[in-house]
UniProtKB/TrEMBL annotation:
InterPro entries: Nucleoside_phosphorylase_sf. One of its GO terms (biological process) is nucleoside metabolic process. GO terms for molecular function: catalytic activity. It comes from marine metagenome. This is Uncharacterized protein. Gene3D superfamilies: Nucleoside phosphorylase domain (3.40.50.1580).
Amino acid sequence: MFPLYRNDNIYLVVSGIGKTLAAAGTAYLHAMSGQLPNQLFLNIGIAGHRRAITGASRVASRITDQSTGQTWYPSQIICDSLDRSPLITVETVERVYAEDAAYDMEAAGFYPIALRASTAELVQSLKVISDHPGEPVADLDLQRIQDLIGNCIDKIDSLVKALQNLADIVTSTIPTSYSLDPFFERWHFTVTQRHRLRRVLERWAVLEKDESPLTSVPSDCPSARDTIEALENALVAKRLDLHDPAAPTQPKPS
């Protein structure tokens, strides 16, 4: 269905251009790699930008689907030499660059599919800036794109390795202090909400090991849905330093 390349640790799918193909390629990648929990998903490609920063790499801090207005906020990560930028996914090649942001055609297709398959900290999008108003996209060819990506391969490799280490931590260790029981005692959770809560608490264990998640839930929180939303909102502001991912030391909640 899609070109697929792999080694012992990494699967690579070439999805093609556009968010529909990116979404399908991400689902295909997940299926072909065994549908394992807490897998790393990294979307790599080129993007335009208003600024003349051709060759610079940017990790998406916000992903917006221009056609629908839907927006996602990937978990904030800290990785040496990798700056962040808002990323706008467009339907056709961008030539105006109206906002101070990167412009691509795939991330809004990739991100929601990958997010369903893994925890948020392990789903990221990295773009290499390829064009700007003074260096239009019409000047790009395949060799130029290969050179741009190739020049950033060390940064890409560094990010992949850091995220792989984090994936190992997420998979192997979740503190018992984040038990589900205190939540079940206060609110009624549907089966779907229980799975969602577990995912949120797994993220919390990585981002905020020293603070109970219950401290971020208002005492008068009326429902399970509001409880989960309060936890998710609290996680948005937390940053993860990939160079010091201290692992929790206790087993998973039950």
